[in-house]
Amino acid sequence: MKSLEERFWSKVDVCGPDECWEWMAGKTGDGYGAVSRGRKCEGSVSAHRAVWELIIGPIPDGFYVLHHCGNKGCVNPGHLFLGTGSDTNRMMLALVERFWPKVDIRGPNDCWEWLANKVSRGYGQIYRAHEKYVYAHRVVWELTYGPIPEGLFVCHHCDNPGCVNPNHLFLGTNKDNMVDCVEKGRSNRGQRNGQAKLIEKQVLSIREEYARNGITQEKLAIKHNVKRQAISKIINRERWAHI
Predict the structure, then answer these.
(1) Residue 226 CB partners (closer than 8 Å, separation 6+)
(2) What is the residue range of 160's domain?
(3) CATH code assigned at 151
(4) Residue 240 falls inside a structural domain
(5) CA dihedral defined by 194, 200, 204, 210, rounded to 10 degrees?
(6) Which of 231, 109, 90 has its CA nearest to residue 160?
(7) Is residue 243 part of a domain?
(8) Does residue 241 lie in a domain region?
(9) Which partner for 140 in 20, 164, 195, 243 could form a disulfide, CB atoms 3.0-4.6 Å apart?
């Protein structure tokens, strides 16, 4: 049986000394590399912990192997360091120090515009260790109010995706987010969708004619130049359910 060291390096994309060395085999649900110790009874170990033990030596009790680079899949020993649980707080403080210089802070009721990197939809992004890029408005919520409950979104009262003023943010479900999107006219549903063949006025008319006059779906389809299936889905609110 091959040794742990032999099996380990065969699974690593070794690049330059300052670059991330990516783990090429199995990974945990958190994104860290995982390597078997060789025997079922010994299980597996995180790849970045394994490389520390192979290159540097045993990990003292109570210490973690952390990444300078923020890349969970990296096993370059030069990108790793030992830390305690308090280092998590240190990393958060470092994030705070990088975050606020990238914000145009104005009055308490004004939008605070994110001045750094943004995605195509206008949301700010910032690099956070272990997670790579995350949305700036989500980060400011966590910095101000604490963790975001699983399944909830951070939404904007101001409808400005580049705003990170905590007073302009609120938590909501996916449904809350979609309702807010429609009410503010940002949804591409209905007649805002470039592929839509009908407008809202026609859809409302179709439902009214079918309910009041007893006209068949086939005749409504001919009248509005669409398929009968489309009429059926409109009447049963499988389409255009937002009106």
Answers:
(1) 197, 198
(2) 89-183
(3) 3.90.75
(4) no
(5) -20
(6) 109
(7) no
(8) no
(9) 164
Residues 99 and 161 in one domain: yes
Amino acid at 88: T
Please state at what angle helix 136-145 crosses helix 86-99, rounded to 10 degrees.
120
Backbone angles phi, psi at 198, to 5 degrees: -120, 165
In whole angstroms, give the CA distance from residue 95 to residue 142.
11
Among the three residues 84, 119, 134, which one is the final residue of a domain in this structure?
84
How far apart (Å, rounded) are the C-alpha atoms in residues 120 and 79?
A: 31
Q: What are phi and psi of 186, to 5 degrees?
A: -100, -5
Longest CA–CA span in the chain (Å) reads: 83
Q: What is the tens place of the pLDDT at every residue in 91-143?
A: 766 777 788 889 998 888 889 999 998 887 889 998 876 566 789 999 888 87
pTM of the model: 0.43
CA distance 86 to 214: 71
pLDDT tens profile 154-176: 988 888 999 999 889 998 876 65
Domain boundary among 62, 84, 106: 84
Same domain, 71 and 116: no
DSSP string covering 207-224, please?
HHHHHHH---HHHHHHHH
Q: How far apart are CA 206 and CA 151, in angstroms?
A: 36
- Residue 102 CA to residue 114 CA, distance in Å, equals 6
Identify the bridge partners of residue 155 per DSSP, sorted by sequence position: 170
- Clarify whether residues 113 and 169 are in a common domain: yes
Q: Is 123:135 a contact under the CB 8 Å cutoff?
A: yes
CA 89 to chain centre: 22
